[in-house]
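Example record

The entry below shows one chain as it appears in the dataset: sequence first, then structure tokens.
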Amino acid sequence: MKYINRWALMRNTQTENLSQHSCDVSAIAHCLATIKNVRFGGDLNAERAAFLGLYHDMPEIITGDMPTPVKYHSRELRREFQLVEDNACKTLLNMLPDDLKPYYRDAFFKNEADDYLWKIVKAADKISALVKCIEEEKAGNSEFREAKRSTLKAIREMDMEEVDSFMDDFISSYSLSLDEQK
């Protein structure tokens, strides 16, 4: 995962690899599930959300990071790319010893019981992308301006109270320097 760089179509002031991104998504997913439980009466398994977040982009070890504009260009392309991702998941799962496969299968193939947690992971993935945009903008890179705008719009359209709460409480701190944070 550490050899797969993200944001390949854009100039980056600092590269972000898949390993770093997955760790961020895992931490944010855990926080979102915790917010849902504590503030909104949810009953989510925050540790499971973190687990799914950690593995959410694992197929990219085989496929590489497909840029969003390419991946979502059309329904047909998205459908075909989903088949490629599914094959990558099968390959990765089959690399595990048989006795471990059941413990990782749900990280590669979504099950209905985890539907809401996967929604949490998707939100965490978007928030992680927004954080990258904020960091690049903070470093003077205006190339991420449109990505920031569209990512922020997508986050707001998710209409998830835990996501809105996270955004209200935490997102502004990503714009601060270390000395400004309290």
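Notes for this example: DSSP finds nine helices and no strands in the chain. Residues 13 and 86 are 32 Å apart (CA to CA).
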